[in-house]
Amino acid sequence: MNARKLTLVALCVAGGLGLAGCGSSPSTPTSSATPIVGIPQPTPTATPTATPSPTPTGSSGLPAGMICSPTPPPFYRMQAKIHSGDNPERLVLDSKPLVINVDGFCDRVGFGAWKFCDTRVEGDEQRVACDWLVTGKASDTGRWGPTWYYGDRLCSDAPEACANHPSNQYMAVAKAKGTYSVCAADVWPLASNGMRCGSIEVK
Asked: For the whole model, what pTM was predicted?
């Protein structure tokens, strides 16, 4: 071995380049993604899936085109009264749902700072939709509005004393003395101090 070759070998050893192959073409780098045998590899982290926003209770059940926005707070109770009737044996009863005042709802829809209020003021174009939203459908007629009772019987099961109004489920006809109750379905959240029914005594 001549002096020139000895010098070259000495430089390779001193520089720590023996593994790269001194005097030859550089080897192809190993990809960092290639797993190394015997060494645990990190587990890939799963990409979280977006959770869809829940649909408010009852909001999808209204007929197409009916809007109630902002939606009412939790249900407070049904209010019943005698609407009209000169004949004491055939009185027209009326009802409406009431909701509690949360986040200034009653003031925002035109009632002021009340403790509870209607879903909308009379004449508001969304009044019917909002009443339907919180009341649901009557269990006996299937119409939008509350279920009427005479005593503990459905109005439709007590024809001698009670009749559902022909066109408005929020009304009923009282044909006898006694207690009439009107109840909303359980489609809307109920306030902690609320009740789904209201009643009126016909004397």
From this structure: 0.70
